[in-house]
């Protein structure tokens, strides 16, 4: 639990990580950045791709991160 009552999905020594399904790719950016601010750790996103067609969400997520030069680590899982 963070000071404002929100919950980070996974907190490691280095990262504050948001886990989200592919369709929620855009929401995951804001949440991970916010968790990074609250914890002082690097934001991270684990995007859960349930089927091959969800790959488009991974591409969208990474496109936004690259375009705006956000310092966010991204992993994908199935």
Assembly context of the chains: single chain
Secondary-structure element order, N to C: EEHEHE
What Rg, in angstroms, do the CA atoms define?
A: 12 Å
Strand % is 25-35%
* Largest sheet features: 4 strands, mixed
Q: Could you estimate the helical fraction of the residues in percent?
A: 25-40%
Low-confidence stretches: none
Helix/strand structural class? alpha/beta
Strand segment tally:
4
Tally of separate helices: 2
Alpha carbon gap, first and last residue = 26 Å
Shape field:
globular
Question: What value does the average pLDDT take?
Answer: 97
List the strand order in the largest sheet. Answer: 1-2-3-4
Kindly list the characteristics that best describe this protein.
single chain, 78 residues, four-stranded mixed beta sheet, 2 helices, 36% helix
């Amino acid at each position: 639990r963070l000071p404002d009552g929100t919950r980070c999905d996974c907190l490691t020594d280095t990262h504050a990580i948001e886990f989200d399904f592919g369709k929620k790719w855009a929401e995951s950016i804001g949440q991970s950045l916010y968790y990074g601010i609250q914890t002082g750790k690097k934001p991270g996103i684990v995007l859960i791709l349930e089927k091959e067609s969800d790959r488009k969400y991974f591409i969208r997520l990474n496109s936004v991160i690259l375009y705006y030069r956000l310092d966010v680590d991204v992993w994908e899982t199935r």
